[in-house]
Amino acid sequence: MTEEIIIAGFGGQGVLSMGKILAYSGIMQDQEVSWMPSYGPEMRGGTANVTVIISDERVSSPILNEYDTAIILNQQSMDKFEGTIKPGGTLLYDPNGITRHPERKDINIYQVTAAEKAAEMGNTKIFNMVVLGAYLKIKPIVKMENVIKGLKKSLPDRYHHLIALNEEAITMGMNSVIE
Description:
The protein has 179 residues and is an alpha/beta fold. The protein has a single domain (2-174), classed as 3-Layer(aba) Sandwich (Pyruvate-ferredoxin Oxidoreductase, domain 3), CATH 3.40.920. The protein is 35% helix and 25% strand. Strands 2-3-1-4-5-6 form a six-stranded mixed sheet, with helices on both faces. The longest helix is centred in the first third of the chain and has 14 residues, at 15-28. The mean pLDDT is 93.
């Protein structure tokens, strides 16, 4: 099993964090992992993306031109990455701010209203965990117990009190994905 993922959106949406948590989760399952972030100098508000590869076999290169899954969180990323998904692959996106919805017929398309769900939960910072939950519902490539370990590993100790909220957000995302 090899899963090649691109997660893309604006800086500040938790794109890189989501990728890091996925990568740590794969490590906790003794899988081979690659995590390669890419972001402009703007950080917050600028575009950001991360490539994550989780595999049972050694990862030869973190540089990819096509992906099994694209998680898209803004229009610029939709325009840039929709065409890079392998036929039969998966596109997961939050429709908030999307003006041109995906048009491909040869991929599986899912939607999660993560911004809306995070606002309902009273904390917009958990937006990325709602998205992560939706992804894990579609493709359960890592176990929830390892996601929690990944959260603990990637979050500074001073934020560990938020792990339960993040877990709740992941569950919310799992229950909110729309095909």
